[in-house]
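Lay summary

Proteins are chains of building blocks that fold into shapes. Our project writes down both the chain and a compact code for its shape. Here are two examples, one after the other.
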Amino acid sequence: MSMLQISRRTDYAVRIMIELGLCSAEECTPSRKVAKKTGVPKAFLHKITADLVKANLVRTFSGPTGGLALAQPVEEVTLLQIVEGIEGPICLNICLLRPHECPRDQLCPAHSLWGRLQTVVTEELQAVTLQELVNEARKLRQRPVQLRDEIPYLIKG
């Protein structure tokens, strides 16, 4: 069974961005430290980081004191920027990307629903800043670790 879900690359990108956001703005964090703290495999981290650099969200520094840093202040980065930096523009259905290409878009009872859902998703992602996620990460680090069975939103197979 397939499901609508964010990709592992996007999940990893969000983890990476939060970890970088936890550091001071001037701080350059070694990629091996980011990989260890986020659980992102180092080889995968480099590929994701390359996409985040293209999206102007991350800067990289080479050399023995090199590493990664945010390219923008945490309060200016949105979750939408991170998702689209990895996935490209959000489009729930191809008919929304190219209007009138589908001969049914004027007749389709679901067409306006797809448009409304896409608007809600993009607006929600735009409304969440990296600063909010960093603040939440700091709060969670203060709490004792919960067992998986206690996480209310975890989907059980």
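And here is the second example, written the same way.
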Amino acid sequence: MTVKTHTQDNQLVIQLPEKFDFDFHNEFRKSYTNRDDYRTVLLDMKHTQYMDSSALGMMLQLREAMGNESVISIKNVNPSILNVLKIAKFDSLFSIS
């Protein structure tokens, strides 16, 4: 699976792959580059079963690129990935459900 994007309810939705790691760095960056018209981004992890530390870094780069005025939500997170996000304190940076 690849990184897929679409818009829904005036937000940019980025669907992440089953294995979210450095192999998807360029593809992930392209998904939000030149999308300044969207202030709300939803990362959909419905298919994601694995992520590594580079994925955490990519999510931080997204947050930096979108700016402080944007809202970035992470949805459909499986329990093991949710645990990683909480340990990394990402629940204080992103809205996670």
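What can we say about the second shape? Residues 4-96 form a domain with the Transcription Regulator spoIIAA fold (CATH 3.30.750.24).
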